[in-house]
Design brief:
Elements lengths: L8 H13 L23 H10 L9 E2 L6 E2 L2 H10 L7 H10 L4 E5 L4 H9 L4 E5 L2 H7 L4
């Protein structure tokens, strides 16, 4: 239901206008500082790869679903590879959420400002429970004893 594009500001403005002309229900500019998950980040790939390679990590103790592969990552090497690839690769959001629900995941926690991802999760799986946590007190409330 949603498509995100990246590009130069003039190109994005043209694309937004065309989307509106063609009847898009909503076409907005996202407030982001980089063109993550796109080829426009190719210039930063080598430095990003070095940063990921230098970060201490170990094999996941539980499967981590990769943004690029949309599959469970169980080994350190595949987790690093997926992390490095996501700088310039598209996010396979729908496949990721469907894969997680197929594994039995029914509860999601969105860490960040707002609840955009919770809304997207609910569109994919209306039965899913999703909790937005944008501040420390949200997490404290979520994990407080009943």
């Amino acid at each position: 239901g949603q498509v995100v594009i990246s590009g130069s500001t003039p190109a994005l403005e043209r694309a937004l206008n065309l989307a509106r002309e063609k009847g898009a229900r909503r076409a907005v500019t996202l407030a982001v500082s980089i063109a993550a998950h796109s080829e426009l980040m190719r210039h930063a790939q080598a430095e990003f790869n070095q940063a990921v390679a230098a970060t201490p990590m170990s094999d996941p103790t539980i499967p981590v679903i990769g943004n690029v592969s949309a599959k469970p990552l169980t080994r350190l090497a595949e987790a690093r590879q997926d992390l490095q690839a996501q700088l310039t690769s598209r996010v396979r959001w729908t496949e990721t959420i469907r894969g997680m629900t197929a594994l039995g995941v029914d509860t999601f926690i969105e860490i960040g400002n707002g609840a955009v991802l919770c809304g997207l999760v609910k569109r994919i799986d209306p039965q899913a429970r999703c909790f937005p946590c944008g501040a420390t007190q949200d997490l404290e409330q979520l994990f407080a004893p009943a």
